[in-house]
Amino acid sequence: MVGIVAFGAYVPRLRLNRQAAYDANKWFAPGLRGLAKGERSMANWDEDSITMAVEASRDCLTSHKAEDVRNIYFASTTHPFKDRQNAGVIGTALNVEQNLSTMDVGGSLKAGTSALIAGLNASRDGAPSLVAAADKRMARVASANELNYGDAAAALLCGTENVIAKLVGHHSVAMDFVDHFRGDEAEFDYGWEERWIRDEGYSKIVPPAIKAALAACKLKGSDITHFIMPSLMPAVPKLMAKMAGIGEGAVRDLLGASLGDTGAAHALVMLVDSLETAKVGDKIMVVAFGQGVDTLVFEVTAEKDKLAKRKGLSGWMARRKEEKNYMKFLAFNDMLPIDKGMRAEFDKKTALSVLWRKRDMIYGLVGGKCKVCGTVQFPRSQVCVNPNCHAIDSQDPYAMAGLECSVMSFTADSLVYSPDPPGYYGMITFPEGGRFMADFTDSDKDQVRVGAKMRMTFRIRDNDQMRGGFKRYFWKAAPV
Amino acid sequence: MARGIKDKVAILGMGCSKFGERWDSGAEELMLEAYKECLADAGIDQNQLQAAWFSTAIDEVHVGKSGIPLSTTLRLPNIPVTHVENMCASGTEAFRGACYAVASGAADFALALGVEKLKDTGYGGLPGGRGGPLQSLWNASGTAPGNFAQLATAYMTAHGVSGEDLKKAIGHVSWKSHQNGAKNPKAHLQKAVEMDTILNAPMIASPLGLFDCCGVSDGAAAAIVTTPEIAKALGKHDIVSVKALQLSVSNGSESGHNSWDGSYFHTTRIASKKAYEEAGIKSPRDEVSMFEVHDCFSVTELVTMEDLHISETGKGWKDVLDGFYDADGKIPCQIDGGLKCFGHPIGASGLRMLYEMYLQIQGKAGPRQLKNPRIGMTHNLGGAPRENISSVAIVGRYE
């Protein structure tokens, strides 16, 4: 039996208040008033689809070992790299390299479900597959998309042991119905009229696809207890359910009021949302539309209640800070030619040879543990840092990303260049041993203090825009 | 402990340029300004110099690498010139090289010259950067004030000092240096400042405000050293000799091992202890007449006075508030204004501190002259509290 064995999610801390965004733009686009309610998630300046996917994957693997994963699929329409395996970065951040196959899946809003189908099929022979999906889509200033979109990630571990939601069946159709597109040279989506999309697209393509999936699963529409279907038009999922004979009560909330539509990740984000509360026997249908339709049907098993607790979507949603500064949203998304000052001009060129040699340290936050004295240290070095030891070549790799740490000293620096000043950084210490001066992120004045507990998080450190946007990733400390 | 070099080397002459935002000068002009004074003071001919040490710390922004910039600027007689860099301890490093050359007998006359031209970068503060290809991948995005601000937070935590008390104490450190700097015509900042202005200044890196940070200055300083015997033979009186030169460099334990609490300078404790031993000083609080220490930030000076074993650990802030280090206190500290007001052209700073000691011991310090000082101690700290070079020099009257 193949299916989902664990789930995880990630939502950035900041939530852009839609009224604030509307207020800034209503002089130009008064027609957006109807969308000026609730909030959307907003990535911090140091987050992208890779960092969010890493966080969701860590959440998912709370109950499982990363080294058991044999395949990583990473779905997004905003992969930070066009030619460099984005899923491979996730693997390195999770400290897995050997016996691992990675694949980026993109090109459509159904990339998340397509990756999930691939992951489930790849797991049938017992090789666990991690399916991560994340999107951080850009939208034009004063557009409906700007208000509707959100940034988030989901991750699902597929396998055959202790399955919490078994795959009942899946079905796909592929049709080049272009409701919107983003060309190779564009930053933003370009879409066609909504009424045409609804009447000629959704209404004619989706119901037959759902019916075919139900037939393949030997189920009736009324058997479905959770109907998941992302759409920027809130009425559409209800309409599709009705046309396919699925009860209105099964239609899941689109999370639009508090999160926004998270693109290629959204079907999986909604699936995690459903799994968190689903009961044994529940049948979950996931439908994703994007130049065709993917449909998957799952049945929740008794194993679900045994799954170790994790943050999940609800946990990350609860970690929330409202952002009413629309200018900050623009600046974080590089939509505002803000005066960064000369201190932002330092060359951020990455020596790829160094990155390769030190990839476990930089991407995996792997330190060392001395075999002679037991001291944990970061970075791992040839001579032990313990002043009473100094043993040579004595250290075993020691993964530190999952360890909680605390603030020994810190500052809020107004001189250093930070896209979100003041720059918070400080000495963090790990109770197992080891310390280093780290940048802090997602930090507010009232949260950072000596002794505060921090959690390491994988983030963008620099963006080398001189070389086409090479993102440099490293780990930062964030308040627990 | 090795025998040391106590009284084996004498300072024959010294010079120091005006420090400040020297828009009129490049590094070359500054070097010559200090050198001309130094050579005239020494009273020898340039051709008598047999070796030179040249210090700059951020040479990328002015003269470039090697000994060539010094040799070319001064048109030295093709003698060995060694370029040294040890962050903010670079000036003292150049002095150490020259002294060791004389002490060993390799040279009768050696020159140490340090310079830094910082004000051609286009912005305030020190030029930034994140080190080499590996460091730039993981080092925290720090500035100097941000790193030293953490000394303040850790010090408060370690000794239970309230934010208010510490702010007052470090404010007094800066107030005192401004009082002193106002009497120094070569200082970058020559204005006394009210306590209220200091305490209410804009925050740079909390809890350090604008007045807790030293000036970023252009400047140069130089020394010519020889043996006391040669100095006497040249007819010199009031000879100032070197009593001790010590250096201690972090080995990563503070930054990487949980045994350090962030509230003190491990290296300064070691270097100063060795220096007292080399100089034969048993009770520094009673024997040292004056200090020039590395007050890159006010809190650095406060903590340094503990690590030099003058104030009791955790009580330095009380000595500061009692006026112990003021110009009229028991042991004046930064009588020339310190880095805070004289300025901090990095590669020159160690030599500038020695210049003040040299003037004071010879009674040539003008309106800021102390009464009969005998032993002067200088201290530099290069790097950050968690990883640094601490250099200590003790000079005094040759008797």
Quick tags:
heterodimer; A: 480 residues; alpha+beta; Peroxisomal Thiolase, Chain A, domain 1; OB fold (Dihydrolipoamide Acetyltransferase, E2P); 2 domains; nine-stranded mixed β-sheet; five-stranded antiparallel β-sheet; 28% strand; globular; B: 399 residues; alpha/beta; two-stranded antiparallel ribbon; 15 helices; 37% helix
Describe the structure.
- The complex is a heterodimer of chains A (480) and B (399).
- With 480 residues, chain A is of the alpha+beta class.
- Chain A folds into 2 domains: 3-332, Thiolase/Chalcone synthase (Peroxisomal Thiolase, Chain A, domain 1, 3-Layer(aba) Sandwich); 342-365 and 400-479, OB fold (Dihydrolipoamide Acetyltransferase, E2P) (Beta Barrel).
- Chain A is 24% helix and 28% strand.
- Chain A has helices at 18-25, 49-60, 86-93, 111-122, 144-148, 194-217, 235-243, 266-277, 312-318, 326-332, 352-357, 359-362, and strands at 3-10, 14-17, 39-42, 71-75, 101-105, 129-135, 152-159, 165-174, 180-181, 190-191, 226-228, 283-289, 292-300, 321-323, 366-370, 376-377, 395-399, 404-413, 423-429, 435-439, 453-464, 470-479.
- In chain A, strand 4, helix 3 (86-93) and strand 5 form a beta-alpha-beta unit.
- In chain A, helix 2 (49-60) crosses helix 3 (86-93) and helix 6 packs across helix 7.
- The longest helix of chain A is centred in the middle third of the chain and has 24 residues, at 194-217.
- Chain A is globular, with a radius of gyration of 23 Å.
- By secondary structure, chain B is of the alpha/beta class.
- Chain B has 2 domains: 10-120 and 218-233, Thiolase/Chalcone synthase (Peroxisomal Thiolase, Chain A, domain 1, 3-Layer(aba) Sandwich); 144-209 and 242-397, Thiolase/Chalcone synthase (Peroxisomal Thiolase, Chain A, domain 1).
- Helices cover 37% and strands 18% of the residues of chain B.
- Chain B has 15 helices and 11 strands.
- In chain B, helix 2 links the parallel strand 2 and strand 3 (81-84).
- Chains A and B meet through strand 18, strand 19 and strand 20 of A and helix 4, helix 5, strand 5 and helix 9 of B.
